[in-house]
Amino acid sequence: METQVRNGAAPAAQERFDTIRGRAGLVIGPLAFALVLLATGGLPWSQRALAAVLVLVISWWVTEAVPLAVTAIFAIVLCVFLGVADEDTVFGAFGNDTIFTFLGGFVIARAMTVHGLDRRIALRVLSAGAVVSSPARTVIAFGAMAMVISAFISNTATVAMLFPIGIGIVGAVSAINREQDGRDLRYSRWSTALMLVIAYGASIGGLLTPIGAPHQLIGRDLVEEQTGRTINFVQWVLTFAPIVLVMFVVLCAVLLWLNRPEVRRLEGAAEYVAAQRAELGRFSRGEANTCVAFALAVVLWTAPGIGSLVLGDDHGFVKLMHEHLTEGVAAVFAATALFLLPLGRSAGRREATLTWGEAVKIDWGVILLFGAGTVIGSLSSKTGLAGTLGSALAEHLGVSSLTAITILAAVTGLIISETTSNTASAGIVVPIVVPIAVAVGVNPLVPGLVATAAAGYGFMLPVSTPPNAIVYGSGMVPMTRMLRSGAVFDVLGVAVLVSGVLLMSHLVGF
After folding, report:
1. How far apart are CA 134 and CA 261, in angstroms?
2. Which positions, given as ranges, span the membrane (predicted)?
């Protein structure tokens, strides 16, 4: 009975909230669209129309009145219909190199899931030494795995993979603990910390690489579009790796401090992990082939950046790599390898590592969302709306220094990400803060990167991110504990993010 209440009440309340929010958005969006058209008569028509479309998109993205991808496609169709730009300009954004980076990365991640490589890695880490015998070490180990894995596959997929393993360990430990002293650890402070570290670790770990989360590729592309600067794979990693490591230490300290484990030893956890590893069997050909494809992607992604560091940007071979070995090209090469590397023969037919039937199960909605976000960001620059908006906001808010604008970017991204998706947050915040930085004459790359990273925050509410929703649905995370832990980490995380990007931007050379 207790489990039913814990697992059923929260999703029902969240569903009611989402329904009310969606219905409100259906009304607010069109009203805001009409109001902006009427209130911006002093602007050129292209800016007025684009501003109205942008307000409609923000309203529907925040309230999720319509699926995000549908809103995105509808927005770019409206841009053509209202004469903001012609169809070749608008739909041409879907030929963007980052689209193919998405495709390749998603296909490789799909292969990891299909062949169980991600699960094998997780269980191998947990079986090392006496990791799962200690409550604190178990929390740290799960957080570390979530952080590293989410650097290369989506945070939602990472949590979906680690979540059942965590549930299994909690269940095994609780069964033994109930027999010994009658306490049920399924609803303990320790289980709360374990669930939260899986969700939060995946969210911060995506920052390690630009492909770690869809909103980062979207935000980076918008920053590059509006600043004219290129941020390659190696530059991104060098910038954010130290920040992520510091944030992970802060995360573990916060969760273990606010959710202090009730026991000192987890009886039965090691046996559960050993049993799960035994079920996996031997390392398969599919897992080996997936490792080869993944290694190929990493080598090709990092080669141009490493070449620049070693040989310099002016070297002929480095220039050739930057021109022809883009991230999208590298991702497609690696993904194609999965359809070429054989598993063997089945019924006389050659069987590849990944079939097209499995590959098409990637999230195509995110790709549509990215294309539309690129269109709106590009049009905001071409029509002059970005400059108009940036100058007005800079004057109204009174911000003039790089530090003040960077803090504004982080706080704005954080607040919006608490109520809507990460991808939508990046599409909303980046086009606003970059023009503000340009208007006051400071380096726009820094607040743009911070806004992109902050769009992946949102640790307080189940609706903030899919990872939060997944672990909250376990019934092991009371709302009060999520709010308290998330609020503390939000504040500390923003401080680390802002100071870290300001420091690393100088060292990396942005």
Report:
1. 10
2. 20-39, 51-84, 90-109, 159-178, 190-213, 233-258, 291-312, 324-343, 364-385, 397-416, 423-442, 454-475, 487-508
- 486-492, long-range: CB within 8 Å, 24+ apart, which pairs? 486/200, 486/459, 486/460, 486/461, 487/459, 487/460, 488/254, 488/258, 489/200, 489/250, 489/251, 489/254, 489/255, 489/459, 490/414, 490/457, 490/459, 490/460, 492/250, 492/254
* Cα distance between residue 453 and residue 206, in whole Å: 9
Nearest CA to 210 out of 228, 225, 223, 201 is that of 223
pLDDT for position 463:
61
Rounded Cα gap, residues 5 and 25, in angstroms: 30
- 3-class secondary structure for 291-316? HHHHHHHHHHHHHHHHHHHHHCCCCH
Q: How far apart are CA 23 and CA 44, in angstroms?
A: 32
Name which of 485, 415, 506, 427 is nearest 197 in CA terms.
485
pLDDT of residue 339: 93
**Which residue is associated with the tokens 């740290």?**
140
- Residue type for 349, please? R
DSSP notation for 76-109: HHHHHHTTSS-HHHHHGGGG-HHHHHHHHHHHHH
Q: Give percent of the chain above pLDDT 90.
A: 12
The angle at the Cα of 40, spanning 39 to 45, to the nearest 5 degrees, equals 135
H/E segment holding residue 504: helix 479-508
C-alpha 468, offset from chain centre = 12
What confidence score (pLDDT) does residue 275 get? 81
**Would you say how long the chain is, in residues?**
510
Residues 404 and 356 sit within 8 Å (Cβ to Cβ): no
Give pLDDT, residue 4.
35
pLDDT higher at 250 or 483: 250
pLDDT at res. 1: 30
Give start and end residues of each alpha helix (H) in 82-228: 87-91, 97-115, 117-126, 135-149, 155-181, 189-205, 214-227
Most confident of 3-12, 97-106, 137-146: 137-146
In this prediction, residues 174-191 reach a mean pLDDT of: 68
Confidence of residue 500 (pLDDT cuts 50, 70, 90): very high
Mean pLDDT of the chain: 80
Let me know if 88 is exposed, middle or buried by CB neighbors in 10 A (0-12, 13-18, 19+). Answer: exposed
Q: How far apart are CA 113 and CA 212, in angstroms?
A: 16
Q: What span, in angstroms and rounded, lies between the C-alpha atoms of 198 and 163?
A: 7
CA-to-CA dists, residue 432 to 84, 118, 162, 220, 343, angstroms: 19, 37, 36, 14, 49
